[in-house]
Amino acid sequence: MSETFKFLLQNSMCHGVGWSRGLGDFLKENGYGRALILVDQGVADHSPYFWEIEGLLKAALTGLDVLVLRGSEEPDYDYLDQVAGQARALQKSDVLLGIGGGSCMDIAKAVAVLLTNPGKGIEYRGFHMVKVPGVPTVCIPTTAGTGSEVTINAVFTDKKEMKKLGINGRYLNATHAVLDAEWTMSCPPAVALSSGMDALTHAMESFMCKQHNGLTRVFSAAAFELLYKSLPSLVDDPQNRDKRQDILLGAYLAGVALFNSGSGISGALSYPIGVHFKVPHGIGGAVFLASVVEYNIKRGYTDYAELLDRIECNPGMSLAEKSKYFAELFRALSDKLGVPKYLDQWGITRANLKEVARLLIPFQGAFNQNPVEFSATEDGPKFLARHVKEGTSL
Ligand SMILES: [Fe+2]
Fold first, then answer.
1. Are residues 293 and 331 in the same domain?
2. Residue 5 lies in a domain
3. How far apart are the C-alpha atoms of 245 and 179, rounded to whole Å?
4. What is the pLDDT of residues 298-354, one digit of tens each?
5. Which domain does 22 fall in, by range?
6. Average pLDDT over residues 289-299
7. Does residue 94 share a domain with residue 136?
8. Which CATH number is 245's domain given?
9. How remote is the CA of residue 155 from the centroid of ligand 1, in Å?
10. How many whole angstroms separate alpha carbon 292 and alpha carbon 60?
11. Is the pLDDT of residue 102 over 70?
């Protein structure tokens, strides 16, 4: 069967433990003389690798500015404008380096276009609103998960409207991505796990969603295999750099699959509970993922057999049996990674379930991407109820 689809992959990628030690030469080879680094505060304050690379870049380049971004909190448009203002006040750079987690890379990609396009960030909210290409950007993830180094999205919260809607589409890709596990070694374990859960959510949702195609499935399945085999090392063997490198690659591949296909129930649920209850993005998606797998299997979906084949050989099983077994393995992986079962700790409880369920209604379009029908008004509340203590029904 021949498929009709479009596939986008617009940046170069450099891969390897310690690769960043050659970053100065790479930048010069690409014609970049002066650079501006946007770096997460946690990385700037605590990462010896950052201090080493900063020193190497200072020696290699004609000029280097560094702006340190506030850590942890997911960015809003006011903060984006503040950073863009600081960057606009500096001497013009040939290249912008975003070194940090997904939020930092999103800010770097958005600042890159705000350096060449006038006005405030929120004026470019939506899809394909940016008119002029930004300053070339190198994104270097220090937590493996969001895939921002390869996607065409930069997510920001609008504090006034209490919703997350970023700057997306044309010119929102980094020019180059650097996957180097040395950067991830000083990432706090809880952040590494939450980011890993985000990558797993991207791999699974891009695999399942109705908009997948033959090529996105190649990326989703490869991402899943890498993540399934390497994420447990965050618990058992956190200093293993090769496994960390595999997680970075898995997150990258999952990002490619995600923005070329779509997401689904888990990704959609993570948005309202992130904005209103501050559930971290990675956890907010992963908390529902095993339930989504089980929900779909109960309704006859068997494509998970393909993912099982990537991680185990079970020649005697039917597609349905493979899918059921996959659900068990997936649940075990979620438990191993410490994916929370309940949302009570973020203030979503049996007492406010009805209010929270109402927040899901605008996301019906995203739920429609799930391969099995899912109603925001009927299935949404039941789903939430499964994830609060003593709350199997409303
Ligand atoms: Fe995500």
1. yes
2. no
3. 7
4. 999 999 999 999 999 999 999 999 999 999 999 999 999 999 999 999 999 999 999
5. 12-186
6. 96
7. yes
8. 1.20.1090.10
9. 10
10. 50
11. yes
Q: Is residue 207's pLDDT more than 70? A: yes
Question: What are the structure tokens assigned to 88, written together?
Answer: 């606009």
* Residues 293, 235 within the same domain: yes
In this predicted structure, the answer to whether residue 278 has a pLDDT above a threshold of 50 is yes
Q: Please give the distance, rounded to the nearest whole angstrom, from the Cα atom of residue 60 to the centre of ligand 1.
A: 35
Distance from residue 325's CA to the centre of ligand 1 (Å): 26
pLDDT of residue 393 exceeding 50, the answer is no
Q: How far is the CA of 2 from the centre of ligand 1 (A)?
A: 30
Q: State both tokens at 68.
A: 């340190």
Q: Of 170, 186, 202, at which residue does a domain stop? A: 186
C-alpha 201 to ligand 1 mean position (Å): 7
Centre of ligand 1 to C-alpha 30, Å, is 31
Handedness of CA 349, 351, 355, 358 (dihedral sign): positive
Report how many domains make up the chain: 2
Residue 73's closest CA among 44, 112, 46, 100?
A: 100
